[in-house]
Design brief:
- Helices cover 11% and strands 38% of the residues.
- The chain has three helices and 19 strands.
- α1 crosses α2.
- The longest helix has 10 residues.
Length: 250
């Protein structure tokens, strides 16, 4: 990245059919803290999919610290089972009927520069139908006045169900005939099983030290052909989300 006017993406797609992005590691695309000209801006993303794509599948990825969005799915599709960390804007779908399910979107104090977070976790707009279910959006402790979930601006029908938005300045914004049911918006921590779960604790759960950086470094340093299902976005998101489920009554 050589100048502040460029538009840099980790992956850019256009005019594709049946595109799948699965179990990838996207890290700090579109900017670099040690390059003066390579600052964060709203045009640089981990994954940018142009509106002329058919609906795609983005599933099981670890998506970390982009310039702006972790994923812009302008042709819509399925955004499922992803772990999104320190993303100024998490992800959005638009244009075609879509689903955003079982994702975990977190901010972390372990990362010093988290960007000027607008604080929108998951977003859907300009589409006829959307299913936003069973996601966890947590820990935007400071900055931003956006919502954890948005389904707005010419959304026809949709369901927002079973999500948890925790320690987030805004909760939800909807329009159209969107059915909002069975969600928890900024509940007291005592109502949840273990809302301290995050990437660092998941790394400890896997047998390492309690360090978010160590979890990411495994992805950076793994040999070609080596893989570990426990390191996927699906596995990490599942374990973290389990801590945000309602605690049983005594």
């Amino acid at each position: 990245i050589g100048n502040n006017s460029g538009k840099s993406q980790g992956v850019f797609t256009a005019m594709l059919t049946d595109f799948v992005a699965e179990e990838n590691f996207f890290y700090r695309n579109g900017w670099h803290p040690d390059v003066a000209e390579a600052v964060r801006n709203k045009f640089n993303h981990n994954l940018y999919m142009a509106e002329n794509n058919d609906p795609a599948i983005v599933r099981g990825n670890v998506m970390v610290s982009p310039g702006s969005h972790s994923a812009q799915m302008r042709g819509g599709g399925r955004f499922e089972d992803n772990l999104v960390v320190d993303s100024p804007l998490g992800a959005f779908v638009r244009t075609n009927p879509s689903a955003m399910r079982r994702n975990t979107v977190l901010f972390s104090p372990e990362t010093p520069d988290r960007g000027a977070a607008d604080g929108i976790g998951l977003q859907a707009f300009n589409l006829s139908d959307v299913d936003m279910s069973d996601n966890v959006i947590a820990f935007l402790a400071n900055g931003g006045d956006g919502r954890g979930l948005e389904a707005r601006d010419r959304v026809g029908d949709g369901t927002v169900r079973g999500n948890v938005v925790f320690q987030w300045p805004g909760e939800i914004r909807t329009s159209g005939s969107v059915n909002v049911t069975g969600n928890l918006f900024n509940p007291d921590a005592s109502r949840l099983i273990d809302p301290t779960r995050n990437v660092a604790r998941y790394q400890e759960h896997l047998g390492g030290r309690r360090s978010q950086s160590d979890f990411f470094n495994w992805h950076h340093n793994r040999p070609m052909g080596a893989w570990d299902d426990d390191r996927t976005g699906t596995a990490a998101s599942r374990w973290i989300r389990a801590g945000f489920q309602p605690a049983p009554f005594d």
